[in-house]
Amino acid sequence: MVKLSKEATEIIEKLHNHGFSAYAVGGCVRDSLLGKIPYDFDVTTDAEPHQVKELFERTIDTGIAHGTVTVMINSVPTEVTTFRSDGEYTHNRKPKSVTLVKDVSEDLSRRDFTMNAICYNQRDGIVDLFSGMEDIQNKTIRAIGDAQKRFCEDALRILRAVRFSAQLDFKIEEKTEKAIKNCAHLVKNLSVERITAELDKILMSDSPEHLKMLYDLGVAEHIMPEMCDCFSTQQNTRWHIYDVGTHSVNVIKNCPKVIHLRYAALMHDWGKPHTKGINELGEDMFRNHGKVSFELSESFCRKYKFSNERRDKITRLVKHHDIEILPEKKYVKRAINKVGDDIFYDLLCLKRADCLSQNLELTASRLPYIDTLFALYEEIKENKEPFGVKNLAVNGTDLKEIGIFGKEIGDTLNFLLEKVIENPELNEKEKLIEIVKLKRDWL
What we know:
The protein is of the alpha+beta class. The chain is built from 24 helices and 15 strands. The chain has helices spanning 6-17, 27-33, 49-55, 104-109, 132-137, 147-153, 156-168, 174-183, 192-203, 212-216, 220-223, 225-231, 244-253, 259-267, 272-275, 289-303, 308-320, 329-339, 341-356, 360-363, 367-382, 396-401, 407-422, 429-442, and strands spanning 22-25, 42-45, 59-63, 68-73, 76-82, 84-86, 89-90, 94-95, 98-100, 118-121, 125-128, 140-141, 171-172, 277-278, 284-285. The strands form 5 sheets. It has a 7-stranded mixed beta sheet. The protein has a two-stranded antiparallel sheet with strand order 6-9. It has a two-stranded antiparallel sheet with strand order 7-8. The chain is elongated and about 90 Å long. 40% of the residues are buried.
């Protein structure tokens, strides 16, 4: 039922041969029981860190204060941690101290969820003290022991519960869910890096719509109030059948698994709660919501210390998600130049996902139009047709040689780009220089 990596097997066998207990534990066992292939293996043992280091040729002190040594075999890292019990936790995240113990049951009892407290080795088989296998079979996430105590110890477990729900499509058990609601405010004590890491995993899961659980459990208001506003904003218009928040999580699910694209899907309508009005037909309207969404997404990305590249891609997608593009090459080229070639394909994916998440009785007719935009974009790229000043057969140096300097260089390149977009056959150096000379003579 559980298949270990050859490296984990070698480590466990060596520890056994030297008189120690050792098991694979946690996510690798859980994933094996689910029929998944684990990528990381963790080993727990009664051997102390210095004893582990004596047994293996290459080790790294990755968490020696907490009893963890990383063993390298075949360049594959495997974390080996001594059985331990945790002391008092500080700031709802880390124990002040740990005590190394000799009983695996003490080690398993300190873990977060029953499904992660199962260990295994080939000698003893599966050790399951908290009915974790039953919970896996029932697709249930259950805290070990006193759920509220578990979350007060480590608030990251709150986000991990939602993340596991999204990744595994499991439900959270009733008492565990109640404890999350009671402890939701504790997520404020987590670092932005920890929060982002969990949000990334939720968004990149097969069930990113589980993100709504953060709202339902009262967690989102402490880390992402912008999303809360969306779930409380109805869209009383024929084009929509969901509130803004539910629409947004559906857009995420309909997007490919690209992290900046899924974040853009999450944030693309964050401006709607702040721009809601009523048109002459009595329907809701959200004029200029894209601008407000852009500002909110920019602020969020900075707060959570996203990389410059990720922030730039997310905010540009949010800014341009409503851009109108007529299904002709020249208009597609202008849009590529405006939005950026690096995210234009993502923008079309976002548009399609947005359309699929509205009232399809009315919006399905727009899907062939979006497919046409995809086809035109692919044709432009395949034929290497010019769509930006970098694609022109002339550059600033060429223009300086004919007496054009300063701001006039940029203006001239943009002028030439418009000519080339309309007539791609003009994109030859001699022809473009001649156009510039004629323009100057005319002026």
